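G.,

No rush on this.
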Amino acid sequence: MNIHEYQAKQLLKGYGLPVAAGVPVLKAEDAEAAARQLPGPLWVVKSQIHAGGRGKGRFKELGADAKGGVRLAKSVDEVIANVGEMLGNTLVTKQTGPAGKQVNRLYIEDGADIARELYLSILVDRSVGRVAFVVSTEGGMDIEQVAHDTPEKIVTVAIDPDKGVTGREIGVLNSALKLEGDAARDSVSLFPALYKAFVEKDMSLLEVNPLIVMKDGRLRVLDAKVSFDNNASFRHPELEELRDITEEDDKEIEASKHDLAYVALDGNIGCMVNGAGLAMATMDIIKLYGAEPANFLDVGGGANKEKVTAAFKIITADPAVEGILVNIFGGIMKCDVIAEGVVAAVKEVGLKVPLVVRLEGTNVEFGKKILRESGLNVIPADDLDDAAKKIVSAVKN
């Protein structure tokens, strides 16, 4: 689950981290009152969407010459004008795609005198099986370009879970970020507090871009992006109220109700698979044969007929889907359960696109028999390669 910047900062403030004062705005008429709560003389008006690149983004409705989704204002009147332009309009960034995202929330924040912009994130480094800091002196809006062109400027520091952030790691991070004086002294509490927030709240990503050194030499968290591990949501019911479903795909919301691992993509072939690894392989082989997957969907190892039916409905609800590939290897999951779910879903919602089904494993013959006797126009496949070829051919023809 992702949250907005202002929500992330409120959470981090609870851990004692240095963030600027700010006020969220959901209605244009609240802009003046929000701005007057802050001292000025510089305000920052920030679009709140679940996508990066806001500063370099452009609003569809305002033309190519309009300012981006993060704007500086030097008066309350200028704050009000920016809020009027931004709220309710569609911001397009590199991460939103051409469709963009409608800006339904803004964050008005007190300005900062910036001396240096740094990059910091915390994530799970699967190569070492530990939480790690990723830092760079090249903070700001072009960190992706830095990672691509000069990866040597990015330093990764893994943390021993038994020891936490010790003086040694703080020293390494300070050296990597070239922190001295007050900034280095601030880091002694900042790095452990960030790590504590990450671990205690079961985050999957905590990104501070930029972490700034101000002209007075102190550190400040100028931006914050936080994602939580959905698998740990049962431990954090207090975080549910931070969820903004207007930022999520309708199909993904529906999938979450049925405990399905679903991610909407931009392709035309819907996929229903059991197991994340097999799902990734299925997506890869679809691309290999010249088509694009419309989704990642893992029904899991213990799905029942109702769950499979729900998954099939979600796939067919996507108007971009021109064909469906069901690829099941039955271990815990039984092939006849998958077949029953597919038949039930098709009878309920209809089938207007080609459907290729590859079944293998537990009760595979029962599953194939159910599909044969269903009267559905199902294209059977013997293995994954055969299935991919058939669905791509059926869609193209």
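When you get to it, here's the other one too:
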Amino acid sequence: MTPPRRRRRHPQEDPPPGPVPADGGKRGEEKNPERLYILTGVTDGGERAPIDLVTLIVASADPPPTATPEQAALLRICQAPLSVAEISAYLSLPFSVVTVLITDLLAAELVQARAPIARQAMPDRSLLEAVMHGLQKL
């Protein structure tokens, strides 16, 4: 019996690398500007809500049947307060698109925007000293 002949494997040539998408190739998705325009819908040129990255958004209602998939996802994840930056990251959408979606939901009274909770400033030192001296005199 003759042993089988081994075939030499030739290394396969890799295809040349293509252009890198604008988002750095994250998750294999290409960001399409037309898609983002469709997500934001037709705007009447009205003002956007004064929202920044640290504004907290909390849903005040469940998603209505007429909500877009992005709006429904936003309402579902905002059952507890989330910052706009977190919403943008969770939905993998740019901040500007999330701002437009939130503005529409604010107009429909489906979400509430809250200013971020800031730590209180320390009271004036002279006030603390006056309280301390008053307590010591008791």
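The beta strands are 56-59, 82-83, 111-114. The helical segments are 33-40, 69-77, 84-91, 95-107, 125-137.

Enjoy the weekend,
O.
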